[in-house]
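Changelog note: in this version the structure field was regenerated for every chain. One regenerated record is shown below for reference.
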Amino acid sequence: MNRGQRGKLAMATAALGIGLLSVTGCGYINPQQTSAQYSASDGTRTDLGPLQLRNFLIVSDGENKPGRVVGAVYNSSSKDVVLTISGAAGSQTQVPVKKNSYTLLNDSTPEAILSDTGAKPGSVLEVTIFEDGTSQKAKFKVPVMDATIADYKQYLPTPEPTSSSTATPSSTTSPAAPGTATGTATPSSTAGH
């Protein structure tokens, strides 16, 4: 092999190497996103015992106003459980979830309301979550959104009637149908039904 042929072979090898690097370089340098678990929405996710919480967020008009919890709760256990979400200033709501099933907190279910959001829209609120099946408890960070994004406007909690309103008073709690979300009334919170 003469000097000219060696040069051509070296250039061909270098070109092939550069070509291969350009095809596989991104996968070599950056991890594959499909192998990492993440929330592909504005909401966050976590697991608590047999419960998987997905795409969770709170929709509210302001820091000291009620906030509606939106998301999905999956129950992989063989018994019905209740998820309790505790927010700011003692506000609390409960979400019953049937065994081997799920509850979607959306416009087709009763509202799951925290009476006091405790965080401004655009921020992240740390709530306490508890499930009564295995009595597990954890802290969970949830984003607070407002109606700036039009899709969230339908989830803004409806204001409670004031004493000067002509609306007829109703009880603050009622038995929930199995598999639906409900707000619970405590001395420091109100249900948003």
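Spot check on this record: The CA atoms of residues 112 and 183 lie 5 Å apart. Residues 162-193 have pLDDT under 50 and may be disordered.
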